[in-house]
TrEMBL record:
<keyword id="KW-1133">Transmembrane helix</keyword>
<feature type="transmembrane region" description="Helical">
    <location>
        <begin position="133"/>
        <end position="159"/>
    </location>
</feature>
<dbReference type="Pfam" id="PF04306">
    <property type="entry name" value="DUF456"/>
</dbReference>
<protein>
    <submittedName>
        <fullName>DUF456 domain-containing protein</fullName>
    </submittedName>
</protein>
<dbReference type="InterPro" id="IPR007403">
    <property type="entry name" value="DUF456"/>
</dbReference>
<feature type="transmembrane region" description="Helical">
    <location>
        <begin position="88"/>
        <end position="113"/>
    </location>
</feature>
<keyword id="KW-0472">Membrane</keyword>
<keyword id="KW-0812">Transmembrane</keyword>
<feature type="transmembrane region" description="Helical">
    <location>
        <begin position="47"/>
        <end position="68"/>
    </location>
</feature>
Amino acid sequence: MDLILLLIGFLCMLAGIAGSFLPAIPGLPLSWFGLVLLYATNTVPTNYWILGITLIITVIISVLDYFIPAQGAKKFGGSSYGIWGTNIGLIIGLLSPLPFGFLTGAFVGALIGELVFDATNHKRALRAATGSFIGFLASTFIQFFVCCLFLGLFISIVWQNKAGLFL
């Protein structure tokens, strides 16, 4: 049973890293759940300090994930249309055959969203789309970085308790 929990927890970690790029998957909460599954095993002693601190980090960054792209768009004069366009473009870009479709899709989606909001001012739309895109990149990088830290913590804990997990 411990091995199954370990494997599911590890898969949650990997899905969390992928979720830091994909808007439909809650990346950081999924990575945190992988840590919870690790501590649910009988061979790893529960450390409430690690779980509590990582939960606080998860909640703070998950909340900031909604504000960072909006602040990037607002700083560059954008609207909510640009933010919605970024998310829609990201999903379409992920489905495209382009190598970096999620990046180009996010930017093009933000630009189209801003042009829908105000089709007369192309310069403002380009500036706002840039702000939405920069906010999206910052938020994505923060989530990816913390998910990788959680994965490192997961691997470190497994490594320290390796004898008990595989017996």
